[in-house]
Design goal:
Order of helices and strands: EEHH
Structural class: alpha+beta
Shape: elongated
Radius of gyration: 29 Å
Number of strands: 2
Strand content: 5-15%
Strand order of the largest sheet: 1-2
Distance between the termini: 92 Å
Number of helices: 2
Length: about 90
């Protein structure tokens, strides 16, 4: 006689057996669900990645920085002072 496979899991918070058909699955109760949410919100759980500095990896925010060019208003060719409208004085 074949056995019917029941899909179940252990509650991640209290480790009680929880059936897949339970309304709070994969948790055993709303309380355990909120405890788990609180751990995520407080930083108790983290998904870690290797810490790398983008500049060390060769990524630069400004393409001119990769060439060693100096950044600043004197090097910007997208804005020329003659192209800007005159400023109005606030009263």
């Amino acid at each position: 006689m074949p056995h019917k496979r029941v899909l179940s899991l252990r509650c991640p918070t209290c480790k009680k057996l929880v059936l897949r058909s339970d309304p709070e699955f994969p948790f055993c109760s709303g309380r355990c669900r909120l405890i788990d949410l609180g751990k995520w919100a407080s930083g108790g759980y983290v998904i870690s990645t290797p810490i790398t500095d983008p500049e060390e990896a060769g990524f630069h925010s400004d393409p001119r920085a990769a060439n060693g060019e100096k950044q600043g208003p004197s090097q910007r060719d997208d804005v020329v002072s003659g192209d800007l409208p005159p400023r109005r004085k606030l009263q």
